[in-house]
UniProtKB/TrEMBL annotation:
Ranges for domain Alpha/beta hydrolase: 32-451
Signal sequence segment: 1-24
Protein name: Alpha/beta hydrolase domain-containing protein
Pfam families attached to this UniProt entry: Abhydrolase_10
Keyword Hydrolase recorded: yes
Source organism (scientific name): Amycolatopsis nalaikhensis
Keywords of this entry: Hydrolase, Signal
Top-level taxon in the UniProt lineage: Bacteria
GO molecular function, one term: hydrolase activity
Length: 460
């Protein structure tokens, strides 16, 4: 039904320019497991024990010819953008990392395709690092796509024997490459252990979220490649459609897209995105209090992969002036993916969440412990043992600590006033976890994990 609606919208919306070329399907070639150094760059090898969870990681080359696009007419901040094809027949080869159930019978039919983030010059699977536990628990498949030139070039420099054929001539190809990745997932059952997907969701974080905003507004109405989107950690602006041009400085998600869009924001993101907050019939925004753009949980995985690949700072772990934000943002992201999956299948829309409280859309309102008010509330924030801030400083990777946030433990005296004994802490934490579960911000397995942590924690 959704795909029919998308096709009808393409006919009814004269602002969208549909390409006149009929492109051949991309080709998919398996990368031998022992090619080059013997593992996918930025993959899970040696970082996560996928086999123990009944999963396999495989890598493929995706090759084809891509269109590039250009802006047609004025792009206003409502996101109803028209495009035209700027060029056709641009050859490319990129790679896809596929993580899927070993037993095809476990596959739910949901595939999450991530636009890998290249803010630090190498592919980083941000959304996989946050929500892999949810994907693996459910039986979803995951596909990480090298979509931009910086990521492709880094692959070739890190492992030329494995990635010698990879070639993306520029980021203008990225939008059609991301479309063709979804096309390949739908058309090649071998990627998914012989199964075909029922739902294909596109996701991207930070820099990738800016490009996914442009993709949703300008390309999805043309290509109809995805059944829904997770846009994670965006600012108000959007990425350019072509090389050498500026993107729009303010961009909401178009409300006539025909597929659902979940916008998931941290505290770090809200000051830069408050002007484009949205909650509509097909756009849902959650702002998760206490969280940072990136956090300790994800950084532990990045550091392990970086130590193996030596892709940033010669493999050294990232350090900052203060302890990195350790709020459990992954719980909210897991819940958001569960809601998006159900929504894309025609189910109920996710619950509307209050925004993080702000003054003049510039200053976050904080409580006596310096934690944010409002927003999606996780039990680790509602029953705090620390103050969680959205930014950090210093560090050995330029720009990283600004995004990693801080964790400042509350004083022993303050904790003792809040929780006279361990039973009081566990009772308060459990009640907060149950509130978040009822609100839809927390999934049952994550609620149980969180409460088990509280029971084991030496508080006070």
């Amino acid at each position: 039904m959704r795909r029919l609606l998308c096709l009808l919208l393409a006919v009814l919306l004269p602002a969208v320019v549909v390409p006149g070329t009929a492109e051949a399907a991309p080709t998919v070639t398996a990368v031998p497991a022992d090619a080059g150094k013997g593992w996918p760059v930025s993959g899970a090898e040696g970082v996560l024990d996928l086999a123990a969870r009944g999963y396999v990681e495989e890598e493929y080359l995706l090759s084809g010819q891509a269109d590039t696009y250009a802006q047609a007419g004025l792009w206003t901040d409502d996101g109803r953008w028209a495009t035209r094809v700027a060029s056709t027949g641009n050859p490319y080869t990129t790679r896809m990392v596929v993580v899927r159930p070993r037993d095809p019978a476990r596959f739910t039919g949901t595939v999450v395709v991530e636009w890998l983030n290249v803010s630090f010059g190498v592919d980083i699977p941000v959304d996989f690092s946050q929500s892999y536990e949810h994907f693996l628990r459910e039986g979803h498949a995951y596909v990480g796509v090298t979509t931009q030139k910086a990521g492709a070039d880094k692959l070739k420099s890190l492992d030329p024997a494995r990635y010698g054929a990879v070639d993306l001539s520029g980021d203008a190809l990225s939008y059609d490459v991301f479309s063709q990745a979804a096309q390949a997932v739908r058309a090649n059952p071998a990627l998914l252990g012989g199964r075909t997907p029922s739902v294909v969701l596109g996701t991207g974080h930070s820099q990738s979220a800016l490009r996914l905003t442009t993709y949703a507004n300008a390309i999805q109405p043309v290509r109809h490649a995805y059944d829904g989107f997770m846009i994670h950690g965006r600012a108000a602006l959007a990425a350019p459609i072509g090389d050498g041009v500026l993107g729009p400085l303010s961009a909401r998600i178009r409300t006539d897209l025909g597929v659902p869009v979940f916008v998931l924001q941290s505290e770090t993101d809200v000051v830069a995105s408050a002007s484009v907050r949205q909650d509509t019939a097909l756009v849902r925004t959650w702002e998760v209090a206490g969280t940072a753009h990136a956090d300790r949980y994800g950084l532990d995985l990045y550091d392990a992969a970086n130590a193996r690949d030596r892709s940033i700072n010669d493999g050294a772990p990232t350090t900052c002036d203060k302890p990195v934000n350790s709020m459990t943002s992954r719980y909210a992201e897991n819940a958001a993916f569960a809601h998006l999956d159900r929504w894309a299948r025609g189910g109920a829309a996710p619950p509307v969440a209050p925004p993080i409280s702000m003054l003049l859309n510039l200053i976050i309102v904080r409580d006596a412990d310096q934690n944010a008010r409002g927003g999606v509330r996780l039990p680790d924030l509602d029953v705090p043992v620390a103050a969680y801030a959205p930014n950090n400083s210093g560090g050995n990777v330029p720009g990283a600590c600004l995004l990693l946030g801080t964790t400042t433990p509350l004083s022993p005296e303050r904790i003792r006033r809040l929780y006279p004994d361990h039973a009081a802490y566990v009772a308060a934490f459990t009640a907060a976890a149950d509130r978040a579960l009822r609100a839809g911000y927390l999934l049952r397995p994550d609620r149980d994990e969180a409460v088990a942590r509280a029971v084991a924690a030496p508080v006070p």
